Amino acid sequence: MRKITRKGEILAALEKVCAAYREQGPAEAVACCETEMLQHKVKFPLLETFTRGLYECLPETEQLAFCDRIAALRTIGGNVLLGIMLQERLTAHFLPSFGKAAEYIAAGEQWYVCDIIGERVFGYALLHQPERTLPELERLARHPSFWVVRSLGAGSHYAIKKGLEKTAVRRVFALLLSLCNTRNKEVRQGVGWAAKTTARFHPDIIAENRLRIQNEDQVPGWFRTKIKIGLARHQHAQGDNG
Hints:
Structural class: mainly alpha
Number of strands: 2
Shape: elongated
CATH class of the largest domain: Mainly Alpha
Largest sheet: 2 strands, parallel
Distance between the termini: 46 Å
Radius of gyration: 19 Å
Strand order of the largest sheet: 1-2
């Protein structure tokens, strides 16, 4: 295993994978992708650059089959590839991309699969198409896989941190509140992460929901703790900027 740190190395690997696809087909291209990229230490931004190039290289009709083969390898970096490939497909294939992301997350059964794909698909979509995305997040909140439900927290955290509009944040926080009584620790991780981020960037939304948050019959202590941490980080940031 080597460490890949330069864009030039990424572009060289991309050319090899694309050549393998053109000359030998998808199976060989996946194998080349594994040996050239996924078996090595590569920073996520470089993997994202690689994937966007791969998206341009692969015919649209072959992209999901390629992703299925990558998912079967069960590598950490492969999740970045899956997330960005589906992200690129959101414009033309919005709902199918959501469905495929949920499929990969549920099958992955690991926290990092949730967070990597959740941020890059659900979070990106929420940030850029909130009105279209919010109903889908509310639907996925009832998904039978708790891994998928956890991923909504990761996606929400990403979108809020990146500047999601306040009206959408209010709706996201309402969704988080609806999930706060879960007993599943993975869902708590995701929901708590997004709640903490809401408090850090939008303390006014926390204030709007103060009475409900303080109601111990409706909101558990762990959720309030996440809110307190987020508010403290907001105050600290204000002090730094003062």
